[in-house]
Amino acid sequence: MTSPDPRPPTGIFVVNLLPVAVGVIAILLSLSFFSQVAPSLLAITLAIIVATALNPVARRLERHMPRAVAGTLTVLLVVAVIGMALFLAVPPIAAQLGSIGTSTFDLSRIEPQLNSWLRAHPQMDAMLPDDIFDRAQTQLSTLSRRAAEQLPSLLSLVLGGVFTGLVTLVMVVYVLGNPVPLVNGVLGAVPPKHRLAATYALAQILKQTGAWGRATLLVMLVTGSCTALGFYLLGVQNWLVFGLLAALGELVPTIGPIVSTIPPILFTLADDPQKAVWVAVFVLVFQQVSGFALSPLLVGGAGNLHPLSVIVGVVLFGGVFGLVGAFLTVPFLIVIKAIYQHFYLREAPDIPDAVAMALISGVVEDQLDREEKAREAVRKARAEVQEAELEGQLEDGKLDLEAALTADVTPDRDGPQDPPGGPSAPRAP
């Protein structure tokens, strides 16, 4: 009978290779599928969000009429309000969009100010070519011309958006009118032992998604109105378009409001540099007020998500699904958080805040340093004892080479540690 080889294997072995490969392929196929159906996914998600946000209105109307009639009437009221707003806002917005399409940038107005600033800073002047303004003017003119050429494609995009909006509207009517079979279908797809947790998770998703949808609409309305009014008072051309752009920027969390402020500053800079400074100051102040007062007041605990989680979600979902993924970041995070809380976190112990504070304040690091110093002291003490024993064996001519070369003087991290006097030394009481 041969004894097993004690040597460890030198190769790398993958355990459960087939399930891992199938899982990776399934993830890649899912990402490819969702990237192809992103517009349809947007319409479906929008329908669920809008229906959830309008559900409180439908529930109040349901007290006086059937649920189907209440849902349809709720949608008709919202459509009437949106239609009236579009009837009043579309003509001036179209006129201002036309003026933007035919306008060109003229850097000749800001060239003297920039030249004087460059003369005051010769280091920067030496780094820039002499024809920097001519190149910039040429590039801006080209961009303006290309933007005007893209207006037909923009029109087709608008028409596609209108069609998607109509399909979404029809789905909202059906979801609001008869939501019971849909909810039962979702819960019925969950195994019976997890159905209670799924019910709580679905309730949390519906509550937070509806609150987020209503809060987002309010933030868009307030942001667009205040921005348009501020630009109007500052004398900014196309103030209504830029106000609408600021409102649409609220659809993409955190990043959208920042990006939407760039066009008005650039357009105003090409027309009046001094006015552009005031526009930048106004935008900066309003974003601070919105970020610290307006959004927390209106959004509140709608999603109860950390800002870093939202930014990471925008980057990840936006990188996979584009602009649609960036817009759907908060609903996706609400779903992920609800599933995590009700299917995993309920059985996991809560971590006290004191642990996190200890990590942040450096208390744990200091404790680790003290433990490391204590282990090092024990190791040195053991090494000294071992060295003394080996010297004694060497003097007697009875040195055990195998024991000397394989001796371990590293203290055990988990087990009890011997005192500096060695294993046989008495311990302090």
Automatic annotation (TrEMBL):
Q: Which PANTHER family match?
A: TRANSMEMBRANE PROTEIN, TRANSPORT PROTEIN YDBI-RELATED
**Pfam families from the entry?**
AI-2E_transport (PF01594)
Listed transmembrane segments = 12-34, 40-58, 70-90, 154-176, 215-234, 240-269, 276-298, 310-336
* Region (Disordered), start-end ranges: 405-429
Keywords annotated in UniProt: Coiled coil, Membrane, Transmembrane, Transmembrane helix
Compartment(s) where it occurs, according to its Swiss-Prot or TrEMBL record: Membrane
Q: Where is the composition biased (Pro residues)?
A: 417-429
Family the UniProt entry places it in: Belongs to the autoinducer-2 exporter (AI-2E) (TC 2.A.86) family.
| Organism of origin | Deinococcus daejeonensis
The UniProt entry, under InterPro entries, shows: AI-2E-like (IPR002549)
**Chief location category:** membrane
Membrane-topology annotation of the record: Multi-pass membrane protein
- Source superkingdom: Bacteria
Q: Which residues form a coiled coil?
A: 364-391
Q: What is this protein called?
A: AI-2E family transporter
